[in-house]
Amino acid sequence: MLAVRRLMLFLLLSLWAINSYGADRSTPVVKAVALARDAVVNIRTEKIVQRNNRSFFGFGDSIFDQFFHEMMPLRSYKTESLGSGVIIDREGHILTNAHVVDKASHIFVATTENGRELEAELIGQDLRIDLAVLKITQSGEYPFLRPGRSDDLMLGETVIAIGNPLGLGHSITTGIISSTKRRVILSEQLASVFIQTDALINPGNSGGPLININGELIGINTAIARQAQGIGFSIPIDTAKRVVSDLIRYGHVRHAFLGILVGEVSSAFVRSYGEGGVLVEDVMSDSPAKKAQLQIADVILAVDDVPLTSVSQYYAELKTYTPGDLLPVTVLRGAEILSLQVKLATLPAGYQMAYTRTTFGFSVNEVRNGLYVDDVLAGSPADNVGLRVGDMVIKVENAQVQKLTEFEQEIEERIGQTPLRFTVVRDSVAYLVELP
């Protein structure tokens, strides 16, 4: 009888140990991944690249090939790249990085449900903030991950990055948050504020989700600092939420209008105050800024609690907002610090030309065969480099412009980007002018 009791006790203890062991393995990370993984997709893109056959004449990079470069036939190449994305609604809209799908001729996505590839179309993208929205072309109901929030993130909080490095299927890495609003300048096109973690993010993870321990979408993995191992960056989901509607509805993010002209603060201000900011040099009448009571000589210290140290950073932040958004700004006026809310509007008609005139010091007009400088402000950057009335403007950066609408579009895409390069023609000679 005693032996039977001992056997029963042993069996009960064994079952308890097995159940306890299994329960311990189901950690919060495991549960969070289970909630999110079905919404993560692998993205494969195909691009058609056309190049000159540089060895057409058999001389490689000789002077003959350089001379006959324009006569050489074009050859087409198909290239493939891999990335990740996350489904954000039942209809199959996918949020990812713009650079993952930029210039793709075909886009394919694979879900975890069956692993087969489905075709997707590009709905909208914005390279300035490196976000894009795709949609699976095959109708159906898809597992999705609702956007969470990133304004309440905590330093040291556990996060999980899910992606598709090297096309090997889902890869899961964990880490902690070391900064909730890290300013990083990666290029002129990328957003400037990221969530910084030590969760490993490989190139194939780009566009995949960053989730918290509750399985909520808090960021889009976008880059890794290659010079510093183990540092990953993600676009905060609050940024993505502000622009996703524009990407779906318009195919791009509309430019928001605040109605001020800003300049750099002096080095003396930085030394005396201990921080930077941007100086309000002009407030346009009947603008959102005017209605919010911003004034000339105000110093904007921060936008949405992100400190500003330069004009370029101010414009980088403004790019992540759309018309109708409320923009929180921290302002120094005299010795008083104010917190203001500005309701942003759409760019008014003619703003691009007014911006060009104010920032660079010239204006253009469309004539039958192109765009010509019709005014140069005395003492302006354009005047200082020798730009003249009658000069023909053929390029803004690398984009060719022949019509006024094209010029305005290129200027609008580059508002806040300085210096800006213009290619002008005078007496059949082309010159590259950098302003201001």
Question: Layout of helices and strands, plus pairs?
Answer:
Blueprint: H1 2-25, H2 28-36, E1 40-52, H3 63-67, E2 74-87, E3 93-96, H4 98-101, E4 106-110, E5 117-126, E6 131-136, E7 158-163, E8 171-183, E9 193-197, E10 209-212, E11 217-224, E12 232-236, H5 237-250, E13 256-257, E14 260-264, H6 267-273, E15 278-283, H7 288-291, E16 299-303, E17 306-307, H8 311-318, E18 326-333, E19 336-343, E20 345-346, H9 351-359, E21 362-367, E22 370-376, H10 381-384, E23 392-396, E24 399-400, H11 404-413, E25 420-426, E26 429-435
Antiparallel strand pairs: 1-2, 1-4, 2-3, 3-6, 4-5, 5-6, 7-8, 7-10, 8-9, 9-12, 10-11, 11-12, 13-20, 14-15, 15-16, 16-17, 16-18, 18-19, 21-22, 22-23, 23-24, 23-25, 25-26
Provide the spatial order of strands within the biggest beta sheet.
1-2-3-6-5-4
Shape from CA axes?
Answer: globular
Q: State the helical fraction.
A: 10-25%
Distance between the termini: 97 Å
* Beta strand count: 26
**Mean pLDDT over the full residue set:** 85
Largest sheet: 6 strands, antiparallel, barrel
Radius of gyration: 27 Å
User: How large is the count of helical segments?
Assistant: 11
Strand content: 35-45%
Unreliable spans? 55-64
Q: SS-based structural class? A: alpha+beta
